[in-house]
Amino acid sequence: xxxxxxxxxxxxxxxxxxxxxxxxxxxxxxxxxxxxxxxxxxxxxxxxxxxxxxxxxxxxxxxxxxxxxxxxxxxxxxxxxxxxxxxxxxxxxxxxxxxxxxxxxxxxxxxxxxxxxxxxxxxxxxxxxxxxxxxxxxxxxxxxxxxxxxxxxxxxxxxxxxxxxxxxxxxxxxxxxxxxxxxxxxxxxxxxxxxxxxxxxxxxxxxxxxxxxxxxxxxxxxxxxxxxxxxxxxxxxxxxxxxxxxxxxxxxxxxxxxxxxxxxxxxxxxxxxxxxxxxxxxxxxxxxxxxxxxxxxxxxxxxxxxxxxxxxxxxxxxxxxxxxxxxxxxxxxxxxxxxxxxxxxxxxxxxxxxxxxxx
Length: 359
Fold this sequence. Notes:
The protein is mainly α and 359 residues long. 50% of the residues lie in helices and 9% in strands. The strands form 5 sheets. The protein has a 3-stranded antiparallel β-sheet with strand order 1-2-3. A hairpin with a 2-residue loop joins strand 11 and strand 12. The longest helix has 20 residues, at 152-171.
């Protein structure tokens, strides 16, 4: 990215992520820290983008070796040990995004086939948590009890994950019509039914994730971004994590840049990525965030997933085909109202035991 990052700087960032990865393939937030499966996968995607496919594959093999019998992963691990026994649906779902991205970059058919049972099991875990309204309950408690609430950010990310899972299934000749219908119901909930999710509108992720997760596109997406731009974006610094806190964060800013790219606002996206370079450390990694009222870095961690988000943003803005495919969405199969394209008002489309009804 001319004037923002050099090739050598990007390579150093990738080396920084690789330095955090443990010998068993796991990628914690930072050396000595814990990991969650979502951020672990995001870091693996960054390694893949730099051609470090062996390290990325090792990360996915780690997930395969730790998968629970019900298809899930636990919410947190430290030094290989489980430190949070909750099972978050979004954490489990993101494997699909990483695997499809890996395959698009490598063309490794054998590895995709080997990972297919793990992906299939993970997808079933999250779909078992889908509510009648299409939203996906965000976790099972440590005792296996599902919570009743859904999160807009998580469900938006799971919409992208389900699209990637369907792409894998189609590629392998393993049609999953129930997945298609569940994805349609989820996308409609994300776009058209905010009341089905917990109110987390203080958080910037709830603002841009319907766009980042590929469910929302077109004029409706542009209006959503414009409506809350001044609430969350601090000129020259980046995106706030929380609307009422003087704290901008690198990962949220880079994710916002990807969402802007998806709307054709690449100039704005590049500007935000350029602002993030104030968080860059000489080792190539990035500080998690900056408290601008105190002129202080906080927390004092350089996280692998923040670096991963930077690499992914750089990739889409540079037009890298695998990453633009994963985050492009092609309108996500939806029109601007959130209704599946080709589904007329009042029409019901059924398959197996699942139905999608317009409106």
